[in-house]
Each structure stands twice: as C-alpha cells, then as structure tokens.
Amino acid sequence: MNTRVITKGYRLENWIQIIRDHKSSGMTVSDYCEMTGITRSSYYYWLAQVREAAHDQITAAREMHNLGSVSSGFQEINVVNAYGDGGGRRADIPGQVTVEIRGITLKVDSAYPVMQLADLLRQLELS
C-alpha cells in the first residue's frame, strides 16, 4: 500500500478525533483552536477533508452495492446509541449514529452536522 495513503488515513483519524473533541467541548472554533494551538485554517482544511472522505465512502458503498434507483418514501432506519438498541447490538463508539439503508451502513459521530447527513441520505435516495 502507498505510504501517502496510509499517512493520509492516519491524519484523517487524528483529525476526526480533534473534530469530535472540539464538538464535545462546546467552544467556538476560534476558542478551541487558540486553546489547542491549532490554526483555524488547518482546522477548516481538515474538517473539509474529513467530510470529503465520508462522502467518498458513501459513494463507494453505493457503487459497490449498485443500488440504482431508489423509490421515494420512507425507509426503515436503525439508530444505535452508545447503550445499545435493546437488541444486543452496540455502537462502535459512544455518540455514534449508525444508519442502515438498503444494505449500506453509514456511521457518523452524533456531532456530525444534521443537514450534511440529510444531504448524504438524499444522495443515496437519488442514485
């Protein structure tokens, strides 16, 4: 495997944790960055990279499952919280939301922006 790919994956994981830490802190981006010594430009750059990676994973999963056209209407979703859903399953990490739709599992941090999650779900619906 290419070392650049491995390095970027490591950096993404690191920044995912930083972004989660910021979201759970309740601080503004400016205050959080000042406190941690991170530049705002780095924070926003990596936030965009994390979002792009999430989008790419959804696109790849959609292509892998070859969903084709999805009819409009309600789909059953399963949201699993840190305490389990009563069915013996548990989320991989506390605060993670798992959405399963048409064979695709989408896992996002509960702090993930709701509007972006809705956009991702719409993209799945439109493909």
Can you characterise this structure?
A hairpin with a 2-residue loop joins strand 1 (about 95-100) and strand 2. By secondary structure, the protein is mainly alpha-helical. The two termini are about 30 Å apart. The chain contains 4 helices and 2 strands; from the N terminus they run H-H-H-E-E-H. The chain has a two-stranded antiparallel sheet with strand order 1-2. The protein has helices spanning about 5-25, 30-35, 40-65, 115-125, and strands at about 95-100, 105-110. The chain has one domain (about 5-125). Helix 1 (about 5-25) packs across helix 3.
Gap between N and C termini:
31 Å
Which shape, going by the Cα principal axes? Answer: globular
What profile does the largest beta sheet have?
Answer: 2 strands, antiparallel
Q: What order do the helices and strands follow?
A: HHHEEH
- Portion in helices: 55-70%
Oligomer: single chain
Approximately how much beta-strand content do the residues carry? Answer: 5-15%
Main β-sheet, spatial strand arrangement: 1-2
Q: Tally the beta strands.
A: 2
Based on CA atoms alone, the radius of gyration comes out at: 16 Å
- Name the average pLDDT: 74
Q: Counting H and I runs of at least 4 residues, what is the number of helices?
A: 4
Could you say how many structural domains there are in total? 1
Alpha-beta content class: mainly alpha
Uncertain segments are: 68-72, 76-92
